[in-house]
Fold this protein.
Amino acid sequence: MPGHKRLVSALQLMVQTPGDLFVYWEVSREFLKIARIGLRDSSAQMVLLLYREESGQTEQAALVPLDQDLFYGSHYFSRQKPWKTYYAELSLSYKGAFFTLLRSNRVLTPPVELGSGEEKPSVPVQWQDVTPKLPFAYSPEEERGDT
Amino acid sequence: MATRGYLNLVLHAHLPYVFEADERDHLEERWFYEALTESYLPLLNSLYRLAGERVPFCLTLSVSPTLLAMLANPVMAGRFDDYLDRLIQLAGSECHRTRHDEHFNRLAHFYLERFRSLQFAYRVKYRRDLPGALARLHEKGHLELITTCATHGYLPLMKTREAVRMQLATGIKAFTSRLGFTPRGIWLPECGYFPGLDEVLSETGLRYSFVDAHGLRNAFPAPQNDVYAPVRTETGVAFFARDPETSAQVWSVESGYPGDSDYREYYRDIGFDLDETYLQRYLPYDVRVNTGIKYYRVTGKGNHKELYSPERALRRAREHAANFHFNRTKQLEHLAAIQRQPPVVTAMYDAELFGHWWFEGPDFIEEVFRLTAEHAGSFALTVPSRYLDEHGPAETVSLYHSSWGEGGYSRVWLNPANDWLYSRYHQAESSLVAYDAARRKNGSEKRICKLAATELLLAQSSDWAFMIYTGTTAEFARQRALRHLENFSCLEEMLEKGEVDLEFLNNLENRVAGLFPDMDERFAPGPAFELPRSFTTPFVLMLSWEYPPQVMGGLSRHVDDLSQALTKAGQPVSVLTSLGEGSSPFEMNGLVSVYRVAPYQQAGQEIDFYKWVIQLNLVLYNLAQKIVPANHYTVIHAHDWLVAPAALALCKTYQLPLVATIHATEFGRNNGLHTPLQHLIHSHEQQLVQEADRIICCSQFMAREVRRLFDTQPGKISVIENGVRPDKVSAPELTGPDRRRYAGDDEELLFFVGRLVKEKGVEVLLAALAQVFAVRQKVRAVIAGKGPLLHELEEQAGRYGIRERIMFTGFLTDEERNRLLATADLVIFPSLYEPFGIVALEAMAAGAPVIVSDVGGMSEVVEHGADGWKVPPGNPAALSVAILMLLDDRKLRLQLGNSARYKVIDAYSWDELAVKTLLLYQDVWQQAKKISYF
């Protein structure tokens, strides 16, 4: 159970084995409230989606309906393909379409026994951007001279 | 001498940090004392013996920073002395207890002598300084000493580059501080590698590392020499891979050497065999523990065990060493014949295997080295840097995710038993990146940040996830991980609240004293905005759906100009906005820090515009959560309903006051609410107006509209006009061929610029132009801007028969617009609804004579006949009359233009408006916090 007071909603995808991926998500109440109030469709169901990028195309690799709004949870995706790029989405499913709440990082499953002629995935896995800091942000302690 | 190849023996020594400052007989600390007694000291003795006899040998030894810290810890040195004393006493007691049994008694004496010898070596020979002893072997060329990550954190499952770098950099720094030299290579914890790790290794100056066999065999392209030559990646870092043959011969449970029947049985220790009352005199624990005194040998797979014979076991170890040496000779002979690059067999093991799990292991290694020296023509020993100096890596490949754990990937550290760790690790990683110690000027805050980093490092130790998975001391591991994460949370709370608990800090520091000497406080050196001067007031956080270079309408320019003016007045501003083409996620725009983020789906393609706006609010909210805690924001300023959900949520989350600017209303734009979407937008506007602490409107017209529509309290609304920067609109007029693109040399030019939407009244303008063009031939019009009505307006112009005399330019750059403003004979704004009319103000600032509808904010700005001309809205006839009259009166046009320019410069400067806004922020802040602030 996440113990952080002010949760930054997150969806994180991780590689377990060449064919297995793990994802966890954490969604704050305020975050989900924005989405629910905005959508105004109480029948929209929370779903977990896994996408695979292959030969320049993106295809849905898995869809996991969630019974209710889950503020945190995790899932293992099995029987996936080695040496492919994946990302996950936590979405609200409504009237046959999906509204994305969160999109995960992209991961590359490792290859297994590369054969000849295998095409190397062209999409690199990227680090998450770090939001820059403001170097001269005011601090109350500085103002009071408590340095 | 030519060699057939090389044996590269690599031992990795690691223990998690188990020092407990306040607990003298802490149970898990025994792991360290046991490893010292059974592995590290015996191995060191073997190596020093060889060195003393001048037997040539070399191997690579990785010593983890946590182990190094414990080896150098004077308190633990004292405790180890006590531990050895107790062991010697116990062995002595065993000698007495077994005095009537020749075989057991002989073994008891064996252990007594052994422990005394180890004690002598530790105290006298090495002077309790094992790191120093290792360093001396390194200096002599017998050891290539390297290290691993700070706390042996498993890198492939970390979320941020900063966390990975922190593990590596802290480990290297700790090693360097203790031993006086920088390691050339690194042992990756669990040989865990993932794509991109080599970049971080390269940044930290490392030359080489190791992966498991399949990690190299599955490289792209496939390596030409299998695992028998190192490779490099694009970054230049070299990788050696574990040889499966040498691995199986030692590690295999079924066929490996350690399982031989003559070797000492690990699981038959007197600590579990003898009476507890007897043992308690020597062991200060409430539970049974291994003592290191074991009387039995493996014997076979069953429970029956025969008595151990050290002499027989030593003979066996030597036989196995000979077998190992023979196999390496044949292996390298074969490899040398088939590959061009001199083959190197990299035999990688945990150091603790030798001595602790496999009691005779150190003897085995010693004998392997003796045999290698004796048969120098067979193969040579090497270490990675020596091999790389002489032969270099064979080829360049790309490596992928792998480890040497069970299954070859990450299953051991990521499975249903321990996967709960990672959300907590990752949250802490993200927080730490925000709370970078290097930014802190305050001494207490620096101290807290460094401690928080240490606690996260300790939480990340791969040992915890491993123990939880295997079930061995799982509860201890769970408690350790949680304890460090809880400590991190407490420290984070201290930073946020500014409440320092000195006792807590002192206790933590006491526990980790000496663990990471000279820890680099720049452990999270991510990108930082550089501000040329220091602001002394907290930041205002502005939310706007558009900001340059994303420009749909006046709002973008308003936010840009306002934020620039505020920073000029000394009020720092951060803007959160949408990321579009041509913009970057983070930038400094003058002194304004700009953060941008894009919704996940595309409006109009995957989701409709409204849902896109909601998604924008979700990503803005999430982005704000990464920056608000790390900086000091005191007011949130939202612009229009488009960012209302995020703004309202942020105010609630961080208890910050909210100022909202209402630039226009949905009701006003559409002259009523006619569709469900318009009602929806209206409800967002209503909520924003009701929940904001203060509202800003740009004109009295807008203020009245907001009061009427949303039943707002008196005094809640302030009117602060839009401003304009004359320097941003001044440009030379078009001449020659440039002008002829729009109109002939003898033709007059009429100009409209704005969004092509209903409320801008362009249809009215076209109807008026039809009348103008009917009576005046030498005049043309330019209609600039984009919007949903473009096609319809073009068709309307066609129906009027005036299409040829009107140019629809679409989007214009600022420069093109400014030049047209300078050139046009008249600039016309026939709006039906206009909260303010910033574009008209810009035209006035450019000195253009303007005709405006007598509506909304424009009506307040323009003084009819003095600095502009007003006409009734929606009246093409009146507009056409005004156009024709002004075209006939050049002198009046010049006069209007000049007056307009002076008026705008005088009354609508952003400097003045910024001061008004600052005063409003101050007032809001005072109301919210009941303190005098500025």
